[in-house]
């Protein structure tokens, strides 16, 4: 009895179940925090390694290293600029209607406190507070990481327009400048409490902030950088279609974090968004593939990946705000409208034919992003909008929202388009004064070896090259001392190159 009383009176042992853990403040929801970190990781996997693999495999062999490295560099450089000043320019206290105050996200005092969007409080007529500012139930550090992944993938997507000819040094200078002067403006305007956010433009998870901006900026940059070599434009077949599919698969599955993390909590909206994302992607892929079969007689695997991409992009502005049958309609539109602009309209437009948009980012992201934004303005339901939108009574046209919502969607798209066109042009023109934007033609003929001194595939050994100028056979001494002739295949086998195919 005495022993039992002593145990009951003893202080609790330190451990994870103490009532007041220093690392678990009262406002912290462990489930919300865990999901946001997982969602951030999913989005990160879309870039690293998803788009790195996709870019390295969808281009010609001679551009595999350069294309993958452009994506990798953009990802790394974005993180450093983001924590130095970028995050608070996009999600900090209001400075201008389209920009927040710059500041670092590097200290304990800032990162361990509860996350907050300072400028997101919405006031109605007469200055009455209608929606309080957004304050997720996890630390600022989790929010900084999550929003970084969105910023990084925007620049990685933009790179798709410039593969196969941009001077890597110019790209290294471009990425931090574009992040600061373009991305942060769109992010604050639409997500951080800026004028488009307060006006009621709906962009659930980045149809405008990420995809429209990357598509317009990529197309604009492609214009200023200039085209690839004519031989590359005429024939730019993938060097590894299977790896391209693998990269596309990482992109698809990673979108669960992309749209599932947008509500900043694992709530009902997140569940609807993840389901709608997959339904739209699948529907768009099937639609694109069917159109390829109808008009070209066979399904294109590259086309299927593009269809998957447009379906993911199109649903993004409204993933958590529409019915699943609406997501299917959006997928059908995403698989057909960008297909038409890419396969039909592109070939009839002098401007589109002139600008060398390597991976057609304009069609797969800008066109699909605007399409998704407009369809969201039509199909967003009042019940789901009430769970996520800061504007009371927000809804699509088909649910009584009136044509004014379409006007807002188009107005938001116009602002993002014009801003990216002007700012991207200004940045590249300034860089071009000091660094050539395009590699010289003699280096473009070589590719990776000229740009990096490295190549993607070695036939054997440590990057040794097989000398095709040597005779088809060579004479060597046999075991008995007699001379024998070895074929090319025998020489390769003796060098440890079994199973290697050489294209002569």
From TrEMBL:
Its localization reads: Cell membrane; Membrane
Record flagged with keyword Transmembrane helix: yes
PROSITE patterns listed in its UniProt record: AMMONIUM_TRANSP
Q: Does the entry feature the keyword Membrane, yes or no?
A: yes
UniProt xrefs under InterPro entries: Ammonium/urea_transptr, Ammonium_transpt, Ammonium_transpt_CS, NH4_transpt_AmtB-like_dom, RhesusRHD
Q: Which stretches make up the Ammonium transporter AmtB-like domain?
A: 34-457
What name does UniProt use for this protein? Answer: Ammonium transporter
- Native source species: Urochloa decumbens
């Amino acid at each position: 009895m005495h022993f039992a009383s002593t145990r009951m009176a003893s202080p609790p042992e330190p451990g994870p179940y103490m009532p007041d853990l220093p690392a678990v403040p009262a406002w912290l929801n462990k489930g919300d925090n865990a999901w946001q970190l997982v969602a951030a990781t999913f989005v990160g996997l879309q870039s690293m390694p998803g788009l790195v693999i996709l870019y390295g495999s969808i281009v010609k062999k001679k551009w595999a290293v350069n294309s993958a490295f452009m994506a990798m560099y953009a990802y790394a450089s974005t993180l450093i600029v983001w924590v130095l000043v970028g995050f608070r320019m996009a999600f900090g206290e209001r400075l201008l209607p389209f920009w927040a105050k710059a500041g670092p996200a590097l200290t304990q005092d800032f990162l361990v406190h509860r996350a907050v969007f300072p400028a997101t409080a919405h006031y109605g007529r007469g200055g009455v507070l209608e929606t309080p500012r957004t304050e997720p139930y996890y630390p600022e550090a989790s929010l900084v990481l999550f929003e970084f992944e969105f910023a990084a993938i925007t620049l990685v997507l933009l790179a798709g327009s410039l593969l196969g000819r941009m001077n890597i040094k110019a790209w290294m200078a471009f990425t931090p400048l574009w992040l600061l002067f373009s991305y942060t403006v769109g992010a604050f305007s639409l997500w951080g409490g800026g004028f488009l956010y307060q006006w009621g433009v709906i962009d659930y998870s980045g149809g405008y902030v990420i995809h429209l901006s990357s598509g317009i900026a990529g197309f604009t940059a492609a214009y200023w950088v200039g085209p690839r070599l004519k031989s590359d434009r005429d024939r730019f077949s993938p060097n590894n279609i299977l790896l391209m599919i693998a990269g596309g698969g990482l992109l698809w599955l990673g979108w669960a974090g992309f749209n599932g993390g947008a509500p900043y909590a694992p709530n009902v909206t997140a569940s609807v968004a993840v389901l709608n994302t997959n339904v739209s992607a699948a529907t768009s892929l099937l639609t694109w593939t069917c159109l390829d079969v109808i008009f070209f007689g066979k399904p294109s695997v590259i086309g299927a990946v593009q269809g998957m991409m447009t379906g993911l992009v199109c649903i993004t502005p409204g993933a958590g705000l529409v019915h699943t049958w609406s997501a299917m309609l959006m997928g059908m539109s995403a698989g057909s409208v960008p297909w038409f602009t890419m396969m039909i309209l592109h070939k009839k437009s002098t401007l589109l034919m002139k600008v060398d948009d390597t991976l057609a980012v304009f069609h797969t992201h800008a066109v699909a992003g605007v399409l998704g934004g407009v369809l969201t303005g039509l199909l967003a339901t009042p019940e789901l909008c009430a769970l996520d939108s800061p504007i009371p009574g927000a809804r699509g046209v088909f649910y009584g929202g009136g044509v004014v919502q379409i006007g807002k969607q188009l107005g938001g798209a116009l602002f993002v388009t014009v801003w990216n066109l002007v700012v991207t042009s200004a940045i590249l023109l300034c860089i071009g004064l000091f660094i050539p934007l395009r590699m010289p033609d003699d280096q473009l003929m070589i590719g990776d070896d000229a740009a990096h001194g490295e190549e993607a595939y070695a036939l054997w050994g440590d990057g040794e090259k097989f000398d095709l100028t040597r005779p088809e056979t060579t004479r060597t001494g046999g075991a008995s001392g007699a001379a024998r002739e070895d074929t090319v295949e025998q020489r390769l086998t003796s060098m440890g190159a079994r199973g290697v195919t050489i294209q002569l």
